[in-house]
Structures are given as structure tokens and as C-alpha cells.
Amino acid sequence: MNRVLVPWQMDSAVPPLGAQVLQLDGQTMGTTWQVRWVGQGSGQHSQQAQAVRTAVQGVLDLVVEQMSTWLPGSDLDRFNRASAGSRQVLPEAMADVLDAALWLAQVSGGAFNPAAGALVNAWGFGPSPRYTDPGFAPPDSEAVQAALARQDWRSLRWDRASCQALQPGGVWLDLSAIAKGHAVDLVSRRLAAMGIGHSLVEVGGELRGQGLRPDGQPWWVDLETPPPQSAQPPLPTTRLALHGLCVATSGDYRRVYTHDGQRRPHTLDPRHGQPVSHGLASVSVVHTECLWADAWSTALTVLGLQDGLALASAHGVAALFVQREADGRLTETLSPAMEALAE
Ligand code: ADP
Ligand code: MG
């Protein structure tokens, strides 16, 4: 059985006759990007394609220069290394991301925490040490406690008007759970500003679709599903019309290691300092902004099925939870807003 999700609203602007789908891809943020758009001309070397490549890569490079924990000298890196008690001016373009991240930290009771960078590093998911390094060992409880003492997002005293944040000392911001989605939004808006209103933008599996394809169909995408275990039946395919919508999926089956028989996925629970382990195989969130889809999918992954479903329901967030049951079966749960898309 398959499920089809369609948006609450459709707008009627259709692409011009004779237009076709063009496609480009590239690298960013340790993963890939892909852009499809409805345009004129053909091939990757047309004038429009070259302009699109320059614009897309420019937008993505700027997000990295501002918000990456991986790029030495990024604005985020400068903040993280600043001396205790100093106020750092951050680029205005980071304001929406920080506002969103801090709001979600608040409403999720710290399950989502943009200041959890020290913890991320301790578990080997930052640039160094890497969990893939030979001889890497997960942190002991002392190291975990030390990281937890450095993640108080409330101490940042973020002031949107002056774009300043206080480095209270040792706080390591990590916006990796939200910046990718934000970058997708920015690319999509940049294309629109270039007159490209019909596009499908993807960075590392997070997607945003605007407008329609030349045949008048929306951009259809299938939600990523976790690989089923051995003899288990596969989950139904969920097909989504990305028309003015975005989708992000967090999964426990990518960027994960096993230590002493325990799965260690790269999503951590900052409330106790351990990698999440309550059996959610994936969470997909559909939202009109990819920044929110990305951030919510990480937040709900940390909260787990029960608390995540309650929070998603309270905030009208469209989420699809895939739970790994004790016998290996995968079961799906939809939040009310996701049910509404499926009707
Ligand atoms: P996924 O695609 O699985 O959702 P993301 O790339 O969105 O993953 O986010 C995972 C990254 O976010 C981690 O690699 C880490 O840098 C950071 N992170 C991990 N746990 C948290 C958390 N609880 N709150 C905020 N950021 C986190
Ligand atoms: Mg995320």
C-alpha cells in the first residue's frame, strides 16, 4: 500500500510552453547538493545553467563561511573560540537560524540544543576526533559531564537587534542540525529572485519544491525510509507532492557507529549527554520552510516517539515517525498535521 501526501494549497502558475527540466549538482557541507529547475535552453553549459551554478554554490559557500563548525575561521568557529565574557558580532544572515534554534531549544526542553557542540565533539561527530579515527573511544562519564557543563544556550544573551551573542566561556555552538535546511531555503529563494519559480532544491536529503514541472505536475518525491531488517516486510512508500513544501528526514541509520554492542547515532540527547537510543529509526517532517523541517526532525528524533508526537501535535508539525520495534519490525506513526496531508 502506498500513501500520497499533497499540500494544503496549490497555486496556479504553470511553467511556459516548451520549458524543460534542467539539473545541476555539486558538493557542500560534507554532502551533495542537487537543483532541478524549469528553464529554457539545454545542457549544463547553457548561460542560464552557468548562472544557476554560480548562484547556488555562492549561497551554499556563504552559509558554510558563516555557520560551519567544520571550517576554521567561520563566524561560528570565531564565536566558539572567543574568550570568556566577550561579545561577538555575528552576521545578520545568522539571526533567523539562531532565533529558530533557540526557540526550539526552549520548547523542546533542551532536547534540541544549538549549544551542544562540545558534546557532539566528545562523541566523535565533530571535525576532531572523528569516530572513524583509529583508536577512537567514546567519552567516559567525566568527559560527558564536562561537555554538559558547556552547553547552556540560555547564557548566550543573543541580541537580535545588534546581532551580538555573549561567549560565556567554552560554549561551542553547533548549527549542523538546522543550517542545511536553512541553506535549502536560501538557494530556493535565490533561484526565485533570478526568475526561476519552478524548482526542486536538495542538500543532503533535505528538499524544497516550488512551483510545478513543465507537465503541470508538482515535484513528486518519495520519503526516505529506513532499510528493513532481514525478513521484515518493507514499509509502504510515502509519495509527497513538494509544491510550496519542504521535507527533512533524520535517521538513525546514517552516520552511526557501534561501540560495545551499542548503536551510537550522531543525534545526541543533550539532557543526559548520550546518543539517542529509544528506537526511532527515522523522523520525517514536512514544513513550508526547510529550516524548520530540518530542526524539527532532529528535535523529534531526540524526544522519541511518545514525547515527540505530543510536541509535534501541540505545534501542528507534520511528522512521520518510524519506530524500530523489539522484534525488528518497523511501525509508522503520523502526527495529526501529517494525517491531514494524507487525506
Ligand atoms: P539528521 O539528518 O540525522 O537529522 P542533521 O544533520 O540534521 O542530522 O543533524 C545532526 C547534527 O546535529 C549532528 O551531527 C550534530 O552536529 C548536531 N546535533 C546532534 N544532536 C543535536 C541536538 N540534540 N540538538 C542540536 N543539534 C544536534
Ligand atoms: Mg536536522
Summary tags:
343 residues; alpha+beta; T-fold; 2 domains; eight-stranded antiparallel sheet; three-stranded mixed sheet; 8 helices; globular; binds adenosine-5'-diphosphate; binds magnesium ion
Highest-level CATH class of the largest domain: Alpha Beta
| Tally of strands | 17
Strand order, biggest sheet? 2-3-6-7-10-15-16-17
What about the largest sheet? 8 strands, antiparallel
- Mean of residue pLDDT? 93
Q: What string gives the helices and strands in order?
A: EEEHHEHHHEHEEEEEEEEEEHEEH
Look at the structure and name the CATH superfamily of the largest domain. ApbE-like domains
Bound small molecules, by name, code or SMILES, are: adenosine-5'-diphosphate, magnesium ion
- By secondary-structure content and strand pairing, the structural class works out as alpha+beta
**Shape call:** globular
Q: Please bin the fraction of helical residues.
A: 25-40%
Q: What CATH architecture of the largest domain would you give? A: Roll
Q: How much β-strand is present in the residues?
A: 25-35%
Q: How many structural domains can be distinguished in the coordinates?
A: 2
Which fold does the CATH topology of the largest domain refer to?
Answer: T-fold
Tally the helices: what do you get?
8
Alpha carbon gap, first and last residue = 15 Å
Low-confidence stretches are none
Radius of gyration, taken over Cα atoms and rounded to an integer in Å = 20 Å
